[in-house]
Design a protein that fits this description.
Blueprint: H1 3-6, H2 11-24, E1 28-32, H3 35-38, E2 54-60, E3 68-74, H4 90-104, E4 109-110, H5 121-124, H6 127-139, H7 168-184, H8 188-200, H9 204-217, H10 225-240, E5 248-253, E6 256-261
Parallel strand pairs: 1-3
Antiparallel strand pairs: 2-3, 4-5, 5-6
Helix pairs in contact: 2-4, 4-6, 6-7, 7-8, 7-10, 9-10
This protein binds zinc ion (ZN).
Length: about 260
């Protein structure tokens, strides 16, 4: 990372940058990119990224690990706060923690935008991002951010009709947001709204079963985070009726990145 940028970060984040860059073998590039603030958010932007303030990217420009670039783009301010990421540098730390999972822990990612032929994009959209957030947003406290991130929005539950239940289009986003609410919201009102909605459409049993399966896999002390991620995706897709053979996964290994299917 450019030294004039790294010097501005809190000490805990400087250590995090070192850890990632050592594992990556290349530097993280931080880029001021005002245009990301102007990009229109997708229609279902209630779920997903910290756009339009910040985002990170892993770009594969060739077949080997040395050809991979790690970028964090910011719209206005490195220390930007956004939505429930209310402390300076908290959102920046969130992006670094994404990179730590992918690079240091070699956690595979679901190619949720491009994979899954035959599965509507709305079903897969945000899957990778939110499953990762279930872990990384609970790690922010280890880096000095003591106020928990609160990125769940009550309005999410108004966009669906409970009558549409039991289709893949419905189950995946609803179960994903319900799981996110259990893990990442301390707002009792939002939790109640989520439970009521899921109960109304007859999915509460399914949701609790998924939570039972997910809980050990989302343990922050899990000894094998990469394997835990694959199992989590497997359970999530089963519960949501997403065909497993359609889900593409990309994994980091010693000599490059490999794309495969979930089964
Ligand atoms: Zn994120």
């Amino acid at each position: 990372m450019q030294s004039q940028i790294k010097q501005r970060l809190p000490g805990t984040l400087q250590g995090l940058v070192d850890e990632i860059e050592t594992a990556a073998g290349v530097e993280i590039e931080v880029t001021h990119a005002p245009e990301i603030a102007k990009a229109p958010l997708p229609a279902d932007s209630l779920v997903g990224t910290l756009a339009p303030a910040l985002f990170c990217a892993v770009t594969h420009i060739g077949p080997t690990l040395a050809d991979t670039r790690f970028t964090i783009k910011y719209a206005r301010d490195l220390a930007a706060t956004i939505r429930g990421y209310c402390e300076p540098y908290m959102a920046f730390c969130h992006e670094l923690l994404h990179l730590r999972r992918y690079v240091v822990l070699r956690v595979p990612s679901v190619m949720d935008r491009m994979s899954a032929p035959g599965i509507p994009e709305v079903v897969m959209h945000g899957l990778e991002d939110i499953l990762e957030h279930l872990v990384i947003d609970r790690q922010l406290k280890d880096y000095g951010f003591l106020v928990p991130a609160e990125d769940c929005d009550r309005r999410f539950w108004n966009q669906f009709s409970a009558n549409a239940a039991h289709t893949m289009h419905f189950k995946a986003p609803v179960l994903l947001e319900w799981l996110r609410t259990r893990y990442l919201s301390s707002n009792i009102g939002i939790q109640k709204r989520a439970d009521q909605f899921v109960e109304k459409c007859g999915l509460l049993g399914c949701a609790w079963r998924l939570l039972d399966e997910a809980r050990p896999l989302l343990d922050l002390a899990h000894p094998d985070p990469a394997d835990a991620k694959l199992r989590l995706v497997w359970h999530f897709c089963k519960a949501s009726e997403i065909p497993l053979q359609a889900v593409a996964i990309i994994s980091r290994r010693d000599d490059g990145y490999y794309q495969g299917r979930l089964v």
